[in-house]
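Good morning,

Attaching, inline, the backbone tokens for the sequence recovery test we're adding to the shared suite. The designed sequence is right after.
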């Protein structure tokens, strides 16, 4: 029997953030599971094409990785996503794996960052100390976490995360999304209700890539950075992916191990 872990990420075209986040998660899984061979797949075809042409990385799609592993003799597989929620990308990943399952004796799926109730506690514990340290630096300061958001019903995870932060004592942490709810307008309203003027913007995304650098921290009028400033807030941006937090990486390791 040959065992493997396929680590599936959306992908990023930013080499530095790839190394700090995706590569780091893969390294930690490899270290924790030396009995398994580690493979990589990215779900974004556009990003794969860009980095494969520019950087010669040779990143596979899920289908390509399944074919590669089968050719290498892998028959026992754990698929561990680095997704935040069980959304569109995660559903598509599962479908692709199942479509290419022939020849494998066993395939198990690890879960994304946020699935069970305890996952929310662990994710908040993983980053909460660093966030609280930032809050303590200035009076009337809040942390605004920018998530991606999705039209998938799994988007409810972001509102649940926001509620869970408050429930665990982080009253000045607010979670919003680029593409869904909680929206930017909802965050504006809640910040004003709490008389908050200074905010630190940081992504709640595995990698601090295009969304973090442009949609969050960019200088364009529609970036969160500029919209917060226009609304009268004092803004700082921290461009740091979740994969840069050691404890977040440990959560993905735990999820892969629990799939065994």
């Amino acid at each position: 029997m040959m065992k493997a872990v396929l680590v599936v990420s959306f992908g990023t075209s930013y080499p530095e953030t790839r190394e700090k986040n995706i590569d780091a998660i893969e390294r930690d899984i490899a270290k924790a599971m030396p009995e398994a061979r580690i493979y990589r797949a990215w779900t974004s075809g556009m990003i794969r094409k860009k980095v494969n042409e520019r950087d010669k990385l040779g990143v596979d799609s899920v289908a390509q990785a399944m074919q590669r592993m089968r050719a290498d003799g892998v028959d026992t597989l754990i698929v561990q996503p680095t997704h935040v929620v069980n959304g569109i990308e995660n559903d598509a990943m599962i479908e692709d794996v199942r479509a290419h399952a022939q020849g494998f004796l066993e395939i198990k799926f690890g879960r994304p960052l946020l699935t069970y109730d305890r996952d929310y506690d662990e994710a908040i514990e993983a980053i909460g100390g660093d966030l609280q340290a930032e809050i303590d630096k200035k009076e009337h300061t809040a942390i605004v976490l920018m998530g991606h958001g999705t039209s998938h019903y799994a988007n409810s995870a972001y509102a649940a995360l926001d509620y869970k932060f408050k429930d665990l004592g982080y009253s000045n942490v607010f979670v919003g999304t680029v593409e869904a709810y909680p929206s930017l307008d909802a965050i504006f309203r809640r910040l004003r209700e709490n008389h908050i003027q200074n905010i630190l913007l940081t992504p709640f995304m595995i990698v601090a890539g295009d969304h973090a650098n442009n949609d969050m921290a960019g200088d364009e009028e529609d970036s969160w950075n500029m919209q917060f400033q226009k609304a009268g807030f004092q803004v700082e941006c921290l461009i740091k992916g979740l994969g840069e937090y050691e404890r977040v990486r440990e959560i993905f390791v735990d999820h892969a191990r629990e799939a065994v």
